[in-house]
Write a structure and sequence with these properties.
Layout (H helix, E strand, L loop, with lengths): L2 H14 L5 H13 L3 H7 L8 H13 L4 H5 L1 E4 L2 E4 L12 H12 L9 E5 L5 H9 L4 E6 L2 H13 L6 E5 L10 E6 L6 H5 L3 H4 L15 H9 L4 E10 L5 H11 L4 E6 L5 E7 L4
Parallel strand pairs: 3-4, 3-6, 4-5, 6-7
Antiparallel strand pairs: 1-2, 7-9, 8-9
Bound molecules: S-adenosylmethionine.
Amino acid sequence: MILTELLRSGEARLRDAGVEDAWLEAEVLLRHALGLSREVLLARLREPLPPRAQETFEALLRRRLAREPTPYIVGHWEFYGLDLACTPAALIPRPETELLVEYALEWVKGQGSRVRALRIVDVGTGNGAIAVALAVHLPDVRIVGIDVSRPALALARRNAEAHGVADRVAFVQGALLMPLRGRCELIVANLPYVPTQTYRGLVPEIREHEPEQALHAGRRGTALIEELLAQAPRHLRPGGLLLAEHAWNQGKRLREAAHASFPDADIETKRDLARIERMLVVETSAE
Ligand SMILES: C[S@@+](CC[C@H](N)C(=O)[O-])C[C@H]1O[C@@H](n2cnc3c(N)ncnc32)[C@H](O)[C@@H]1O
């Protein structure tokens, strides 16, 4: 048997089990089994199987067929062009969250000389995806990543160290903005926003493997973001920005909550690439 045949058989089994992107997932698992980069695997597809390749790939495939997410099986995943460690201690970062990173980067870069003194807070930092991506792209800013989960924070620290930004990102344990001392210019948050009913119907990859604490947020799903909006006026400086990712049907409610906390702010909802309402944007007026 040659490698391409092994890859094709893996793809077929994943596809039959209802896995989307079966080819990509089979390829990621095979690369992990062989310890090869994408380029090297593609160049060797017509070569015979190395010793034990079939058994190692089979073991990974079985885990995937049992609905374990691929990023947890291989232990890492890409977010905003960065390779980040992923374990069941924290949510697997989603591509839609890149919208928040992009918006934050653009806003910070538009701050001119103020950039050097900027302080950013990432609430519900998880594996540190947003905090690390911002720190890598903004070499002058300081960032605080907050999370209730100690195991998630340990993973976030590992990611900050791996990307050389641990000296500018502090990770602290606590609920929402409670551990924050002083004020900041930018609050970014991808907090849990899945309502109870939706949570119960999620696919097993999510419901049985990712931490419930990272996803589920009460009956409506907006409780934590609303609480963040209630706390934020004490911490966000004038001329500051708050960004919060949310679900497709939460925009209106969150705009109303934002207006109650920040009556003079510019408040809007940004849509993602699929044109779905995805992110609350609150820009407070300068003093
Ligand atoms: C949706 S995950 C997002 C993780 C990461 N920021 C990302 O975008 O991939 C939400 C995170 O919020 C954390 N969390 C849940 N409740 C929290 C609270 N009350 N205060 C702070 N963090 C909280 C969870 O532990 C989880 O790591």
